UniProtKB/TrEMBL annotation:
GO terms for molecular function: ATP binding; phosphorelay response regulator activity; phosphorelay sensor kinase activity; protein kinase activator activity. Residues 7-123 form the Response regulatory domain. Keywords: ATP-binding, Kinase, Nucleotide-binding, Phosphoprotein, Transferase, Two-component regulatory system. It comes from the Bacteria. This is histidine kinase. Residues 146-360 form the Histidine kinase domain. Its EC number is 2.7.13.3. The lineage of its organism: Bacteria, Pseudomonadati, Pseudomonadota, Gammaproteobacteria, Alteromonadales. The keyword Ribonucleoprotein does not apply. GO terms for biological process: osmosensory signaling via phosphorelay pathway.
């Protein structure tokens, strides 16, 4: 059986190391084509041309560290096997590389033909398995999306019909029946909101084409607030916003992200909500914070709340789907960032942080 010709992208700023790796690959009994890149930017440009089977990524690159590039590549090309290279072996770097999505980790110091071949084989096998799992997960998400979408119409119909009955026959319906109709209306609305949240959550998995583009954060925040107009006005919520940059992102996802965060801040607050939004810029990330004066998140629950259907408070008192923060986390992951709660200092409430990678490329799709 003929062995597949492999296209390898080698991202390393050292000309000597690139020469050494190419020579080692040439000594292997297999056909390769090696495309070279001296920086992360050149590597991303090469990947956009397509036809890359595997990436050999140096840990130390000019202007950025290999781990941040690894995170970006893993989100943009989840099925692409990536092997992290370092000059010296480090268990800490190895563990962090695997955690952030590397298929394998090898040290250039003492590298042999056999160790490189073994690493490449393992990475390719792992990528094939990952691709099959992703396909199955996408099928399940498609099923959940269609099911949830089809359930929206009857749930909405129940809510509308019970409301019409209560309105048209309010003078002739006994109080006990009126209360039951109100309960039906409230329950069906809650079901509709849950189904809608499920649709938002599952659509992130469906492989739809979304492009990163220049995104005005001020406009995204205003759109999110507009979508929550009735909730904001009902509690007279106050928003304090800083100065925001234009970032590279998927605008509709960013609107959904802020909308979910604002909705939580309003829902879990027993006084007039005050929501503060700020942003700082680092060399590799845009770092946003959303701070409120609500009930807060206990330190031992700050990771659990991002799990699907996780709830900390009585669902009969605080209605919701349990998918708001889970959806927010997935949106942040798509943007190669992180989301987490931190201490809010002496102030009450919660302080949520999320980051968006600055290595995303305009017109690049997910």
């Amino acid at each position: 059986m003929q062995v597949k010709f492999l296209n390898i992208l080698l991202v390393d700023d050292s000309e000597d190391d690139r020469y050494f790796l190419k020579r080692t690959l040439k000594s292997c009994e297999r056909e390769w084509y090696v495309m070279e890149a001296e920086s992360a930017e050149q590597g991303l440009d090469a990947l956009q041309l397509g036809n890359i089977d595997i990436v050999l990524l140096d840990y130390s690159l000019p202007g950025s560290d290999g781990l941040s590039i690894l995170t970006s590549l893993n989100h943009l090309y989840p099925s692409l096997p990536i092997i992290m290279l370092t000059g010296q072996g480090s268990e800490k770097v190895a563990a962090e590389s695997i955690k952030k999505g590397a298929s394998d980790y090898i040290s250039k110091n003492g590298l042999t033909k056999l160790s490189l071949m073994k690493s490449i084989k393992n990475a390719l096998d792992s990528a094939r398995l990952h691709k099959r799992i992703e396909e199955k997960n996408r099928e399940l998400s498609q099923f959940a999306y269609v099911l949830a979408h089809d359930l929206k119409q009857p749930a909405n119909a129940i809510s509308r019909m019970s409301g019409l009955v209560a309105l048209n026959y309010q003078d002739s319906i006994p109080d006990s029946l009126q209360k039951k109709l109100e309960l039906i209306n409230q329950s069906s609305k809650q079901m509709y909101d849950l189904i809608n949240a499920l649709v938002c959550y599952t659509r992130l998995d469906l492989g739809e084409s979304h492009l990163f583009e220049a995104t005005d954060i001020d406009k995204c925040i205003e759109l999110a607030k507009s979508n929550l107009k009735s909730q904001i006005e009902s509690v007279d919520a106050v928003f304090e916003c800083g100065a925001f940059p234009s970032i590279t992102a998927i605008p509709s996802f960013v609107v959904q992200l802020f909308q979910n965060l604002f909705e939580n801040s309003i829902k879990y607050c027993e006084v007039q909500p005050v929501i503060k939004i700020a942003c700082e810029t680092t060399p590799t990330y845009w770092h946003f914070t959303v701070q409120d004066n609500g009930l807060g998140i206990p330190s031992n629950a700050r990771q659990k709340v991002f799990e699907p259907l996780a709830r900390l408070h009585n669902k009969d008192v605080y209605l919701g789907s349990g998918l708001g923060l889970a959806t927010a986390k997935r949106i942040v992951n798509i943007h190669c960032g992180e989301i987490y709660f931190s201490d809010s200092g002496d102030e009450i409430g919660s302080k949520l942080n999320f980051t968006v990678s600055r290595n995303l490329t305009i017109a690049q799709g997910v």
